[in-house]
Amino acid sequence: MACTLAEAIAEQLAGRGVRRMFGIPGGGSNLELIEAAGRRGIDFVLTRTETAAAIMAAVTGELTGVPGVALTGVGPGAASAVNGVAYAALERAPMILFTDGPAASQHQAFDQNALFEPITKRQVRLRPDDGGAQIAALLDDACRLPRGPVHVDLTAPDAQTIVADDRPEAVATAPAPIDGDALESARALLGASRRPIIIAGMEARYAGADGALGRLADALGCPVLLTYKAKGCLADADPRMIGSFTGATAEAACLGRADLIVLYGFDPVEMIPGPWHYTAPVLDLFPGPKARNPMATAATLTAPLSDAVEILLAATTPSDWTGEDIADLRRDMRDRLTLAGDGHTAATVVDALAAGAPDGCRLAVDAGAHMFSAMGLWRAVAPHDVLKSNGLSTMGFAVPAAIAAALETPERPVVALTGDGGLMMCLGELATAAEHGLKVVTIVLNDGALSLIDVKQQSRQHPAAGVRYPMIDFAVAGLAMGCAAWRVGRGEPLADVITEAFEAARPALIDVDIDPAGYGDQIAALRG
User: Fold this and answer.
1) How confident is the model at residue 241 (pLDDT cuts 50, 70, 90)?
2) What domain range includes position 60?
3) What's the number of domains the chain is made of?
4) 136-163 per-position pLDDT tens digit
5) CA dist 232 to 216, 344, 382, Å?
6) Are residues 361 and 274 in the same domain?
7) How far apart are CA 4 and CA 10, in angstroms?
8) Residue 172 burial class via C-beta count within 10 angstroms: exposed 0-12, middle 13-18, buried 19 and up
9) What's the pLDDT score for residue 167?
10) Which long-range contacts does 100-106 make (Cβ < 8 Å, 24+ apart)?
11) What is the side-by-side order of every strand in the sheet holding 282-286?
């Protein structure tokens, strides 16, 4: 059956389970895609920036496993999406970006495919002669490990061209066989280990790998560290759960006692730069191709994580770790999160939020000094309970991520925890939340500074420059964007305000004046 190329694309997106697209349309092929997708039940969400659109699409891809979709105009629209596409690349999120173009004259003209080449898995100029087949291949590429974004340039004339229905038939691919030598090496390492430790990463979120992680940890009776992206893959309340792994000082006491370190779905992008100080052998369990680890590995077993665990369970025996050992390590990690200050601090706000948020609340966390308290103190139960930019660590993430989550799972409450610097980068998206009636709660920790960078500047004994600015009344801005809003002073009560915010019939914003004085000591305890 003949149809336009835009209709063929929309048909394939709908067939893959895409339910919405995000972006700011240009006047070209975007309009054809929006119209064709709308007739197939795919909503278009108008965002206020292209960066936020790309972040929303990427987070949707993470939550669903279906490529998230973003649209931009030619030239400046495409260029403005770069940060969000970089997020998808470094956070391994399946996503497809459609850009109008390329430009037909020198006006707004640059090579858009070349712009996105370093941060996408594939870049194409989609043509009518093979567009249907190409779009199917691109969607497959976005979902193939390591997951990531793909980029499509599409002109309006090509989008409007009638094409044949040339969708390729789906071909099932058998999983690659498990390498026998690698399996034997993995079994030998586990069999010889008496004090193993597991570091679980982002791939533990998918395909039931979180449940297999629990079975492996239970069989070994060993401590578990989770990267920020893997938070919730083992519930924070689980007695084997120690805390977060970042590659810094905080976990050194734990890893230094190990005689085997098991990487479980760990991607090297999740680790901050720095030397690997540990001498214990490393066993790497990962479901597919990955970037090179920063440490030497004694064995690498490539297989779906659930399958790998089921095969390896026969080689596991309870370790020598005691419950007291693990509790001591957990206590040490918790103590490092101590944050001093007068009145409200990031830690007191997170504690109040955890006490006042409804059951099942999802947390989106922005980059900044507040993230240490948020990631350490918030209790997660399942994968994706906490959304965090880790590989890219971009500011301006929490609000777009919370909006994407609210659209995808409207039955779950969601809160965005951000600093003042991060909120200023995406303030307009509060209006996006209001337009769609999303009951997203935003809490902005307001201290008039880029506090994480301020701490680094102070540690180098440089004069303060470029990191502090006048305090902004975000409650006033939130009201202007259509939110219910409150401003809470440093010594004023917060609990009742949090309750009111979650009960509001529209998006809500709480602007909390916090004391940043303790950040330096906290960061030194966690990162050294």
Assistant:
1) very high
2) 3-163
3) 3
4) 999 999 999 999 999 999 999 999 999 9
5) 16, 26, 4
6) no
7) 10
8) exposed
9) 63
10) 100/26, 100/27, 100/28, 100/29, 100/30, 100/72, 100/73, 100/74, 100/154, 100/155, 100/156, 101/28, 101/74, 101/75, 101/153, 101/154, 101/155, 102/74, 102/153, 102/155, 103/74, 103/75, 104/155
11) 241-244, 224-226, 196-200, 260-264, 282-286, 299-302
The confidence score (pLDDT) of residue 469 equals 78
Indicate the SS3 state at residue 88: helix
Q: Which residue has the tokens 């596991």?
A: 316
pTM over 0.90: yes
Beta strands in 213-336 (DSSP E): 224-226, 241-244, 260-264, 282-286, 299-302
Paired residues of 123 in beta bridges: 151
Tell me the per-residue pLDDT of 398-451, one tens digit each, with 9 for 90 and over: 999 999 999 999 999 999 999 999 999 999 999 999 999 999 999 999 998 776
Residues 226-235 have a mean pLDDT of 98
Q: Which residue has the higher pLDDT, 131 or 219?
A: 219
Interval 105-130 mean pLDDT: 94
Of the residues 271, 304, 335, the one at which a domain ends: 335
Give me 10's structure tokens. Answer: 């929309």
| CB-CB contact of 490 with 212 (8 Å) | no
Which residue reads 């500011």 in tokens?
395
**DSSP string of 437-490?**
T--EEEEEEE-SB-HHHHHHHHHTTPPP-SSB-----HHHHHHHTT-EEEEE-T
305 and 360 together in one domain: no
Q: Which of 307, 335, 363 is the last residue of a domain?
A: 335
Q: What HEC string does 63-82 produce? A: HHCCCEEEEECCCHHHHHCH
